[in-house]
Structures are given as structure tokens and as C-alpha cells.
Write a structure and sequence with these properties.
Length: 564
């Protein structure tokens, strides 16, 4: 096991018999252990590690190596395709047409850059973000941070449950009620937990299969609707929003909040540990960082295309439509869902449930069922990645080794109970309406992932020669400030719409506590970024441990690292 938090540990390296560096750990009692004999504290998901082939012919780039590193980025990209994102996409198209596609592209690029930091942390240190937080933050902020991230994961779980339940209801033509769909998601979660017993590559292939289903189903809708390609390209590459008002602005903010999810930083930093990388060799670490970044680019490009399909379908077919127009069309096609749309001239408001219905009314029953299959694939795939995120976070922060069954039973019960109650006692409008609240919840948790990942990737005691350079520190700080500010605006708009004095008072009290904790994390982050005068000589007691309990790269060839 790793040295205790209360003991000082020193790390020494010496050449082994085969010329490789052997790391030893000396604890306060004077005992010396080889790093090879120290059992890594968290091995779930990592019992099997994928070997990286040698390729002497292609020194700079190898497709064989890229294939070996392929997997973690695609699992990470599923968070960009969960039911919450799909709903944000279709609402963007229905509210603003093609005008916000550039926001979606920009949010995806920002997400890619932030995911790069998370992946580098896992590769360089051999520990994921939750484990590093556990070792570096003091006890009280560490527990608060864990609680905040768990809230984000539970909120994400609830969105996945809602998406899966709605898809099952649509596929069964309403025969399976929403609460029945919620119960089915309980069973399928436990079934999917056993997939990695058949091998890590098979599990990754299964996720690839689900992404393929989403691409085919939403691609079918795209081909069926035939969006205007000129308007699509204009909306993607020209940052404008002519004639946009408050609804379009709020939708743009919602896109950023839906795309960049807090628990995904913790997930990605853990998934990269599934590859065999000798961290004592700087060249191998460099190579792993390069291939993981290439893989992330490919994975997020595919997820971006799928999101484009959804936005474009609803922008072309339903932008500017009124409830009365949709009601008339549904009645002409004898749709059993006509009662969803009131006979008025208000602009059509859609969600993932109504989205499938209106597709069925305008383009036939096949469009509805294919839409439902895509939503089901999105819900089921994000269910699995959410499960892994929760497991990594709980084990990393609390040093607990709960079985996956116990962890999923706990978090799934918390996530499913309120969703099940709403599904039993309320209609589908209430169920899909929960997504707005859940998006706000996750927006609030975003600083608790972005600030730590920038903090630790900027610290040389943690990252050594792979610490962020000045450019990345500035760019990372600016990006995080922009993203957090946008999400806070989204939260303020939601709270102002509540319209109750008591809720305003409660929100104000919570906001004060929230901002104090964010300010604390930001203070430590600024110290890590080089604003040393803020430390006031108290860094050890108030923030970081002076002896990080990490498996560091100590003796590596500095000349072989490109200055970042």
C-alpha cells in the first residue's frame, strides 16, 4: 500500500540489474521497500493492462501503437453523448436553428483541451485525479470535494435513468410505463457490470458498438430530414446569432454546461491507467501523452458529428414551428401522442420524449423508433461510464475498496429513488423537466473538477518535467474562468425563475458557502500557477503537502522533453 498520509516518505532511485531505474520508499521508521513490492491502492478495472507494442520502423507515429492506446478516449467521449447532451442538442436546434452550432464546436474544443490535462495527470503520476486530491488536499476540503463530485455523478445517473426510461417507453408504444423503464435500468446496470470480466478490450469494443448505434440512428434521422448544408456550415464556422434573444442566449449557456461535465475529468484520468506505460522512462510517458491526445481528438470528433446530426435535424424540421402546427400534423397521421401538444400558437418546446414523437409525426413511425434506439444506446453507455466514474471517485477520495455491486447499489438507489417517485406520481413532462435542474446541479460542480486538474498539472512536485508551461497555465486558467462563469450565469437564470422569496434566501446562503469553497480552491490553484505571494509562507498547513505521496518521475532525461 502507499505510505500513510501521516508519515513522511522519501523516494530514492538506483539502477537495477537490467539498467532500469528502481524506486525505493523510505518511511519514517526507516523501512525501505521497492516500489515494485508496493501494491497500488486501487486496482479495480486495472487488473488487466493493455501492453503497448514496439514499433522500430515507425519511430514518430505508429498505427499499431495508436490502436493499443485506443479505448479510454472513446469511453470518455460517451459523456458528450449522454441523454442530457442529446436533449440540449435538440432544444438548441428547435430554439435557435443552426445559429448555435459554433457554440457546440467551441465547447467541444474546450472540452478536449481540458480532457488533455486530466489524461496527462493520470499518465505522468500513475494516479487518477481523485487519488491525487486525496493525497494533496487537507481532510475537510477533501471530504467536501468528494461530496460535490458525488452529487454531480448522481445527477448524471438520474439523467441516464430518465433517458433510458423514456426510450423504453417509446419503443414499447407506451406499454411499459415510465416507472417500469426506470426499474429496467436498475437491472441492466448490474448486468453490464460483468462485461469487463471478459477482458478490457471486449468492454471497450462494446462501448464502441454503442457509439456506432448512436451514429447510425441519429445519422438516419439526419439523412431523412436532409438539413440545409449551407446553413449548417454557416452556423458552425461563423460565430453569430442574428435576431437572438434571451432564450437563445440561455440555450447557448446550456450547451456549454451539458458538454463539459465534472465527473468526466476524474473518469479520463483513471481510464488512461489501463495501458502499460513505464513512467521511469520519459520517452514512454511522452509517447503515451501523444497517442492518448490523438485518440481523444478522434473520439470527440465522432461525438461532435453525432451531436451535429441531432442539432441539424431539429433545426431544419422544427425551428419556428408552433404547437398548433405540430398538433395538426400529428392528428393527420393518427399519432397516439397528439395530446402532448396544446392547440395554441406558442413556439414548440421539445425534449427527448417529444423529440421522438414529432419525428414520428413528420417522418413516419420508423423515425420515432430509430430515435428511441439511439436514446437507449446513449442512456445505457453513459450508465456504465457513470458507474466507473463513481467507483473511481469514491475509492480515490475515501481510500475505500467497496465492490462494484455495493457502490452501484448505493449510488443507483440514491439516483433512482427520486426519479422513480416522479415517474410513478407525475407525467412525462415532470420527468423530462428534471433535466433542467440536473444540468444546473452539474454546472455548480464544474469548478470542483476543473480547478483541481489545473492545479495539479501545474505543480512540478506532482508532474515534474511534464508540468504545465506558462502558456498552458494562462490558457487553462482563462478557459476554466470562462466555463465556470458561463455555468454560473446558467445557475443564476435558473434560480431567478423559481419566483419564491424563501427559495431566494436559501439559494443566497448556499451561494455564500459555495463561493467560499471555490475561492479556497482557486487560491491554491493560483499558488500552483506561480502566484507565490498568495501563499504567505503557509502553503504546507493550508493547502499542499510538502511530500506528495506520488510515484514521481525523478531521474529522467530532461533534454528529451519538448518545452510546453
Amino acid at each position: 500500500m502507499a505510505p500513510s498520509r501521516d508519515r513522511k516518505a522519501s523516494y530514492e532511485e538506483a539502477p537495477g540489474d537490467d539498467g532500469e531505474v528502481v524506486t525505493t520508499v523510505c518511511n519514517s521508521a526507516g523501512a525501505v521497500q521497492s516500489a515494485e513490492s508496493i501494491e497500488e491502492p486501487f486496482t479495480t478495472y486495472f487488473d488487466e493492462k493493455i501492453p503497448i507494442p514496439e514499433d522500430e520502423v515507425q519511430s514518430w507515429f505508429s498505427f499499431r501503437k495508436l490502436w493499443a492506446f485506443t479505448g479510454p478516449g472513446f469511453l470518455m467521449s460517451i459523456a458528450y453523448l449522454d441523454p442530457g447532451n442529446i436533449e440540449s442538442d435538440l432544444q438548441s436546434g428547435a430554439v435557435a436553428g443552426f445559429k448555435l452550432l459554433w457554440v457546440l464546436m467551441l465547447a467541444t474544443i474546450i472540452g478536449l483541451l481540458l480532457q488533455r490535462l486530466a489524461a496527462r495527470l493520470g499518465v505522468v503520476t500513475g494516479l487518477h485525479l481523485a487519488e491525487v486530491c486525496n493525497r494533496q488536499y487537507q481532510k475537510v476540503p477533501r471530504i467536501i470535494l468528494w461530496l460535490m463530485i458525488e452529487l454531480a455523478i448522481i445527477g448524471s445517473d438520474m439523467q441516464e435513468v430518465i433517458g433510458s426510461a423514456i426510450a423504453i417507453n417509446l419503443l414499447s408504444v407506451g406499454r411499459i410505463p415510465l416507472w417500469g423503464g426506470v426499474l429496467i435500468t436498475i437491472a441492466d446496470t448490474f448486468v453490464f457490470l460483468f462485461l469487463d470480466k471478459y477482458g478490457l478490450r471486449k468492454l471497450e469494443a462494446f462501448f464502441g458498438f454503442l457509439i456506432t448505434i448512436m451514429a447510425l440512428t441519429f445519422g438516419y434521422e439526419y439523412i431523412t430530414v436532409k438539413p440545409d448544408q449551407g446553413q449548417l456550415l454557416k452556423g458552425m464556422f461563423f460565430p453569430y446569432c442574428q435576431g437572438c434573444g434571451t432564450p437563445q442566449l440561455e440555450q447557448a449557456v446550456g450547451i456549454v454546461g451539458a458538454v463539459i461535465m465534472p465527473h468526466n475529468m476524474y473518469l479520463h484520468s483513471a481510464l488512461v491507467k489501463s495501458r502499460q506505460v513505464n513512467r521511469a522512462k520519459k520517452k514512454e510517458v511522452q509517447e503515451a501523452n501523444k497517442y492518448f491526445f490523438i485518440e481523444s481528438c478522434i473520439a470527440l470528433f465522432i461525438s461532435f458529428l453525432i451531436n451535429i446530426f441531432v442539432v441539424s435535424v431539429f433545426a431544419e424540421a422544427f425551428f419556428g414551428k408552433t404547437n398548433e402546427q405540430v398538433l395538426e400534423t400529428c392528428m393527420n397521421t393518427s399519432s397516439p401522442y397528439s395530446g402532448l401538444f396544446p392547440p395554441n400558437n406558442k413556439t414548440l418546446e421539445v425534449d427527448i420524449y417529444k423529440g421522438g414523437v414529432v419525428l414520428g409525426c413528420y417522418f413516419g413511425p420508423a423515425a420515432l423508433y430509430i430515435w428511441a434506439v439511439g436514446i437507449l444506446a446513449a442512456g445505457q453507455s453513459s450508465t456504465m461510464t457513470g458507474t466507473y466514474s463513481g467507483q473511481f471517485v469514491m475509492e480515490g477520495f475515501l481510500n475505500l475498496k467497496w465492490s462494484r455491486f455495493a457502490r452501484v447499489l448505493l449510488t443507483r438507489s440514491i439516483a433512482i429513488t427520486p426519479t422513480l417517485l416522479v415517474a410513478i406520481f407525475q407525467d412525462v413532462e415532470r420527468l423530462t423537466g428534471m433535466n433542467d435542474f440536473l444540468n444546473v446541479l452539474q454546472s455548480l460542480q464544474l469548478p470542483f473538477a476543473l480547478i483541481p486538474v489545473l492545479t495539479f498539472t501545474s505543480l512540478r512536485p506532482v508532474m515534474n518535467d511534464f508540468a504545465n508551461g506558462l502558456g498552458w497555465k494562462i490558457a487553462g486558467g482563462v478557459l476554466i474562468l470562462i466555463v465556470c462563469s458561463i455555468n454560473m450565469y446558467f445557475v443564476v437564470v435558473y434560480v431567478m425563475a423559481l419566483g419564491h422569496v424563501a427559495l431566494y434566501v436559501v439559494s443566497a446562503v448556499v451561494c455564500i458557502a459555495y463561493l467560499c469553497f471555490v475561492a479556497y480552491l482557486s487560491w491554491l490553484c493560483l499558488i500552483a500557477l506561480g502566484v507565490s505571494f498568495l501563499s504567505c509562507g503557509q502553503t504546507y498547513r493550508l493547502g499542499f503537502k510538502t511530500h506528495p505521496e506520488l510515484f514521481l518521475l525523478n531521474n529522467v532525461d530532461a533534454d528529451s522533453v519538448v518545452n510546453r
